[in-house]
Amino acid sequence: MSTEELPPRESMEFDVVIVGAGPSGLSAAIRLKQLNPDLAIVVVEKGSEVGAHILSGAVIDPAGLDKLVPDWRDDPDCPLKTQVKDDRFYWMTAGGAIRLPNFLMPPLMNNHHCYIGSLGMVCRWLGAKAEALGVEIYPGFAAAEVIYGENGEVRGIATGDMGIAKDGSHKASYTRGMELLGKYTLFAEGARGSLTKELIAKYQLDKNSEPPKFGIGLKEVWQIDPAKHQKGLIQHSFGWPLGNSTGGGSFLYHYDDNRVAVGFVVHLNYDDPYLSPFDEFQRFKTHPSIRGVFEGGKRLAYGARAITEGGYQSVPRLTFPGGALIGCAAGFVNVPRIKGVHNAMGTGMLAAEHVAAALAAERANDELVEYENAWRDSAVGKDLFRVRNVKPLWSKFGTIIGVGLGGVDMWTNTLFGFSLFGTQSHAKPDRKTLDPAKTHQPKPAVKPDGKLTFDRLSSVFLSNTNHEEDQPVHLKVADMALQKSSEHDVFAGPSNRYCPAGVYEWVEDGSSVRYQINAQNCVHCKTCDVKDPNGNITWVPPEGGGGPNYEAM
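Predicted structure:
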């Protein structure tokens, strides 16, 4: 059926359309209703329910919550119950762990005022708050298309069509997507959002900013032996098993119900095409100082997600005619603190305040330049500015020297309000950092024992990932010949290793090899969209409701 033959979409009109029910999108919706209860607000969410696609550590700085819901600590339904009591940092070697004294850490690295919990559960709680205020939330509907007006302004979004078969034909269940139109549209898609990429390119929002930078974060939730549980303990590490030239580190958080969140982050500007973040995560758990925590415990959940790491320098222009970017769609993660929730909420609220003012002035579908002009002087801008050099120094000088210089830079920014290093550059995008495979040696994979270490497929099973089998593949390879001649022949097929879900395989097919995409495994981490050396893979939303169904990540 051609586009001309498609039935027309139904449309609904709102004051504000918000794409994504994460912390920034929900904070924006709630703040808008707080400012003007009569506004018509809709939030569209591609996950099967609010929180289904949310994954974070998470140690949450309560600054955003304190502003949005000041009495949240007194709310019995709020899922954040565990305050940080013990905050530790380690330098890991193959056989030991050297604790770094807390007094050496810049004050901004202190976590004792923060709370440990599941960001997915926090979003479910915020979703209920938003709905109680009259916000309409549509889970299970992926925003698949930006709707533009006659003058190139954003008018809203269209949700994806449902019931399309793998070959592109329409099944009996075919349903046309809907147009959700608004006076302003806020994009809160999270890291590497598909519509955000389109908007950045169309309006050249990144013309005056550094390239975006990313990491991949992998996480497991365990229920451990109560005798080993230390509620309120958090620890972070860097070093082993990563080499000095590869940035990243771990987190280990003890919180409610004898649960421990353990995770591993690898910066995606690594150069070794044989590196597998998933295997390094499994290897990390075998460290003598770590493995004992999990002996006798049970792994409950697994997931992975790309993380924005560019910080201050990489934030694009946030506004364009008819809308704005908020949260991790624009990249507001504070990398050394491994925290972005407070800034996601902060930008959501900041944008909401400027949207509400514009609507009160009877404006619509113009550019919210006030929001763009305000963020750098806000708490979010100040938070990112102080740590702007940590990531580029780490990338430029390696872990040992780079982390030390980053620490010095944070201290001078905190004490004196300036940096000895000015503002450092990120150099190049992550997809351009891989070396040819011939310059590196393969690294043995970790053999899963099913008790402490696991394989990808059993891990994906725990993520409750599900996609309608008969639907178009949502991972688009632009040039399959290039994938063979470059990704396979030059770089030895790194997609087989950087993907944390076993989506990509090079399969021997007689005398040749065939690129197999197991799209049903995809946990929507979007690492492939970042790290493919040729930018040859594009992630687009599958049918709404597909993907992981995280319960408490």
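Summary: Residues 390-416 form the longest helix (27 residues).
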